[in-house]
Amino acid sequence: MSKLQAIKYDAEKKTLDILDQLSLPHISQYVPIKNVDDGFDAIKTMTVRGAPAIAIVGALSLAVELNSILVAGSETLNSAADTANYIHERLQYLVKARPTAVNLSQATTLLGQIVDDEAATATASGKSIIEKVIATAEQMLADDVADNTAIGEHGADWISALYPGKFSVVTICNTGSLATAGYGTALGIIRSLHLRNTLEHVYALETRPYNQGSRLTAYELVHENIPATLISDSMAASLIRAPPRGTSDNDDQKKVKLIVVGADRVAKNGDTANKIGTYQLAVTAQFYKSQGHELKFVVAAPTTSIDLKTPSGDAIVIEERPQHELVQVKGPEVIDGQVQSGAAHRTVHIAAPGIDVWNPSFDVTPHELIDAIVTEKGVAVKDAAGNFNLVDL
Ligand code: MRU
User: Fold this and answer.
1) What mean pLDDT is predicted for residues 363-370?
2) CATH homologous superfamily for 155-381?
3) Residues in the active site (predicted)?
4) Distance from the CA of 175 to the center of ligand 1, in angstroms?
5) Would you call 233 a catalytic residue per the annotation?
6) What is the pLDDT of residues 275-322, one digit of tens each?
7) For residue 248, what pLDDT is reported?
8) Cβ of 239: how many Cβ atoms within 10 Å?
9) Cα 311 from chain centroid (whole Å)
10) What residues does each domain of the chain span?
11) Are the C-beta atoms of 25 and 217 separated by less than 8 Å?
12) Which residues contact 53 (CB under 8 A, 6 or more apart)?
């Protein structure tokens, strides 16, 4: 089975192609990213999306742009100071593509620091600065896959120790290979549970308004043969109360014992911004826990999603998306119950024309509702005082 790859980067040729996530799941096509302008547009339009993926595509879009300056030769190469200024301008532009996920601004800050460090050396040149930036962007891509694999393993270790045997899982948005450089964060934990044969069933929320769950997570789950069912966002509470079906007749195995979500930004106190609907899931989980239901609400994210400069969720900027993303849907036509897969996609309007629309893309889940945060460094579990501490696995 071919591996799903949102980001295809050729380190020899310095070319970048991204899987067009606006055309999935019906059309799988890659689009080239040749410079920062292409990277910015791909991030803003959500051709690429997911906190880690947008940071990596942003960084690599700068790498390919700078490489074409290197390839063009010495006439186009500026002094160290001019090169540094040019790169800073490009980074300042790039970071404005989307505001909520901290990964993009962490990446641009790191690249800016690399530029300044190299520019301050006695041997600095335009070329040496560019080479450092390219190497750093390439390292981000490599690190992300390793980090996600570690997140998957740590999360699966922790939850399996709490709940030995099989159980079901709920997740929202898309946090898999399509939202990262590979493997995934929350979906990485689900993947690891499945590989250990301890996942009974996963329920993926469709994740309105933009349907990352039904379009992308469902696509990954089908692709990976993970036992899964799609539900609408409003079904989660009923599902947790009484799961409809699973792959076994064992009621305990059918029970949802884990809700696992990604993160776009985790504030210093643990408050977490993630796809709109996450907060509602956390509130639901809290109710069931108070009723004695065995259940954990877990955030899975690389440490690049942790923002220690933001004290709490109140300071997180929530992106508002265009109104049409709530009231219009795009896909192949259905004729006589048959999806016309090969046909051109159509956009249809599903709301009353003229109605006002509010379309925040994210919400903030207060840390009080989160049981644990899984990063590549381990699992930080909330203690009685509300602080998150790494535990031994
Ligand atoms: O608006 P999106 O699709 O970029 O939002 C993505 C999410 O909210 C994900 O759950 C989060 O970024 C984690 S991605 C591993």
Assistant:
1) 98
2) Translation initiation factor eif-2b; domain 2 (3.40.50.10470)
3) 264 (proton donor)
4) 6
5) no
6) 999 999 999 999 999 999 999 999 999 999 999 999 999 999 999 999
7) 64
8) 17
9) 22
10) 7-145, 155-381
11) no
12) 6, 7, 178, 179, 180, 181
25 pLDDT above the threshold of 90:
yes
Q: What pLDDT sits at residue 246?
A: 56
Residues 6+ apart with CB under 8 A from 336: none
For the packed helices 126-162 and 186-195, what is the interaxial angle rounded to 10 degrees?
50
Burial class (CB in 10 A: 0-12, 13-18, 19+), 336: exposed
For the Cβ of 274 lying below 6 angstroms from any atom of ligand 1, the answer is yes
Q: Given the CA of residue 212, which atom of ligand 1 is nearest to it?
A: 3
Q: To the nearest whole percent, how much of the chain has pLDDT over 90? A: 90
Cα separation of 231 and 160, whole Å?
25
Widest CA span in the chain: 71
Give the separation between CA 274 and CA 261, rounded to whole angstroms: 8
- Residue 335 host element (H or E): strand 334-335
DSSP 149: H
Distance of alpha carbon 23 from alpha carbon 187, whole angstroms: 21
Q: How far is the CA of 287 from the centre of ligand 1 (A)?
A: 25
User: Is residue 341 over pLDDT 60?
Assistant: yes
Contact 132, 115 (CB under 8 A): yes
- Mean pLDDT score, 254-273: 96
Q: What is the CATH number of domain 7-145?
A: 1.20.120.420
**Which DSSP state fits 347?**
E
Q: Among the atoms of ligand 1, which is closest to the Cα of residue 184?
A: 15
Which residues are within 8 A (CB) of 177 and not within 5 positions of it... i.e. 6 or more apart?
3, 4, 5, 6, 183, 184, 187, 220
pLDDT tens, residue by residue, 62-82 = 999 999 999 988 767 788 999
CB atoms within 10 A of CB 41: 14
Among residues 19, 114, 108, the alpha carbon closest in space to that of 59 is found at 108
Q: In what order do the strands lie in the sheet with 167-171?
A: 228-231, 199-205, 167-171, 256-261, 296-300, 372-375, 378-382, 388-390
Query: Exactly one of 144, 264, 271, 371 is catalytic; which is it?
Result: 264
Quote the pLDDT of residue 1.
Answer: 61
Query: Tell me, what's the pLDDT at 267?
Result: 97
